Amino acid sequence: MTGMVNTREKMLEKTTVPISKVENVLDYLLYSLSLLYIAVCPYTKVEESFNLQAIHDLLHHGADVDQYDHHTFPGVVPRTFLGPLCVAIISFPLTSMVTLLGGSKFIHQLIVRAVLTCLVLGSFRVYRSAVRNRFGTQVSTWLTLLTMSQFHFLFYSSRPLPNTMALVPVLLSLSFWLNSNPTMFIFTAASSILIFRGELAMFLGAVLLMELVVGKVSLLRVLVVGLISLLVWIPLTVAVDSFFWGRLLWPEAEVMYFNLVLNKSSDWGVQPLLWYFYSALPRALGSSLLLLPLAPILDRRTIILLFPCITFISLYSLLPHKELRFIIYTFPVLNTAAGATAARLWINRSKSSLSRLISLALLGHLVLNLLASSTLLYVSSLNYPGGQAIRTLHQLEVSTTPHLSVHLDVLACQTGVTRFTQEVPGWVYDKTEHLTDEELGRFTHLVVAGQHRDTLQLKPFLETHKIIGQVDSFTGVRFSYTTIPPVEVESKPA
Fold it and tell me: Global pTM?
């Protein structure tokens, strides 16, 4: 059996399909869209805090670990430094150049996020190449078109979340799987599970189970490569992360114990059992979701794509706390299945009048996805009042006052304030929580939540401070039948 697998690997190497000019153009558009998302939404949320602050500290404090943010704000569970370390190493030449040219430290945040999205999209291109070899150029082209038209994958590709960090080895491992390289699939998949996200064992384990059942990989190879992976990845993460955290630990083991054994993740909210299926997937895939039921009918090869995705999402649904980003690894695979449907329908577009109508509907659904993505991008840009507030403060005061003391409240820190946004060296930025009104009154400037000047939060400071600016944040969407488009995005002072 091993000899048969090796022969097939050689055959696949010989029949690798070259990338087309169309896909080259789509690549430029893909990268451009992801950079546009960064430009429109340059700030980050609290979920991204650890990785972004870690990258900042690696770039600006280096080996002086005592100055790192995670010692003051460790978060609920420890996270690995391996992802931030990789991004920081790649970003360092660019951020150093910006510093030498006198550029703002906030530009460093944009560079870091651009590097991350390039890593994710680079691994996506490797995955797409494997799709092209396995399913053909038409399917890989439609995979790119669907991904470009949808919002969440590109939006999250630059977000320094543990899930985004894990996307890189996940996409690489999936490409090894599609290229029939089980050894590298197991080894790379193990890195994503043992270092970044332990729950990926359900997703990538389902892929491995299929390979075992159909005899494409032997149990002996799984055990040998699995053991080697354990001996490589666990010591690596333990050594690196124990150094930065100052104690012996395996971060992802603590995370899994917290989420699965203690079930503490439910403290951050619970959703219904089928939430991923009726809420997350429709939002993530848009109207492309309608192509999935036809996939196993029009192209039976897509069964191997749908099985691990459905298995993973079904098993993960048993955990009460759910977020869309938790299943982001399935989006490229589901889009591949949807792309196979689209490719088959597009190839048959000239066979009948009905086929021509279906092909027009295919193009129309891409336009519909793009319209939805544009709306979501605009709404998302209003979701970072903390980042906009500190940016406004710098614009108003940086040229007039060289020394300020600024207190940043919880909402500001959760919605955009990072160490990258603390740009002025002479200012004191304080994030201490639970201060009294008297203690807060000692700061020259306060970035605090308050919907108007007479709100309860601002009332104690009206005599000692004056309001110099305010920012709005997203509150909801209202349907209006008197406007075009018939949707109005509502906001109010944060």
Answer: 0.93
